[in-house]
Design goal:
alpha/beta, 7-stranded mixed beta sheet, 7 helices
Length: 233
């Protein structure tokens, strides 16, 4: 009887253990992403806004002329740029696809609510083919967008396109998954390639391990691969 019960329980464990393990793993995954969403939200410390502000902190621009925010979403960075530099005109560019809950109308409404609508305009376009001539802007910013540009297989070309529309001597600051080798290769090689684009000064800052980012969110698939490339063209 003992031997029979042992075999029975072994059989039951083989049948139901995978299901139990699957439920546990699914629960852990849901719990992790719920935690991440909370921490990124205003109620949980607003990490999303703090990470976005890192771009402006690395943006050494005197603030006069035209600036572009590439992949502006609902325009938080474009608006922050206009507020910080009252002499600038900012153009927010986005494709506004159905993948994200963003729209040009929301951008215009948000800009109006912050009192900068007269100095911020918006245009639909892909970051892989910006509808501006070479050197059109005095400065350019972008936050966690380049890796999402679906119509560009090589994301380094998206960086090159962003730099194309910046005038010689203009400033730029781009934050993206630059530490993800699968997308960009080695950072040192990426910086060398950017210099070959005609950029006179470029620096890289690893923003993935800053103190305000919780350790649990420093995993590669979350915030563990972010960094900022900035400099002067």
């Amino acid at each position: 009887m003992f031997g029979g019960l042992t075999l029975l329980f072994i059989g039951l464990s083989l049948v139901f253990a995978p299901l139990f393990i699957g439920v546990v793993l699914c629960s852990l995954s849901l719990g992790y992403f719920a935690y991440a969403r909370f921490k990124l939200s205003p109620r949980g410390g607003d990490l999303q806004a703090r990470i976005r502000e890192l771009v402006l902190d690395r943006f050494e621009w005197e603030g006069s002329g035209k600036a572009i925010d590439i992949g502006c979403g609902n325009a938080p960075l474009a608006i922050a740029l206009a507020i910080r530099f009252p002499s600038a005109h900012v153009v927010g560019v986005d494709y506004w696809s159905g993948k994200w809950n963003y729209s040009m109308r929301a951008c215009e409404k948000n800009a109006a609510s912050e009192g900068v609508s007269s100095r911020v305009s918006f245009q639909k376009a892909s970051a892989s083919a910006l509808p501006f001539e070479d050197g059109y802007f005095d400065a350019a910013v972008s936050n966690l967008v380049f890796h999402e540009v679906s119509d560009a297989k090589d994301k380094r070309q998206v960086v090159r396109e962003a730099l194309r529309v910046v005038k010689k001597g203009g400033k730029f600051a781009f934050q993206d998954l630059f530490l993800e080798k699968r997308i960009y290769g080695e950072v040192s090689e990426l910086l060398d390639e950017i210099k070959r684009f005609g950029v006179q000064d470029v620096q890289f800052l690893d923003t993935s391990h800053l103190e305000f980012i919780p350790r649990a969110l420093r995993l590669k698939f979350m915030l563990g691969a972010i960094g900022i490339i900035s400099g002067t063209k």
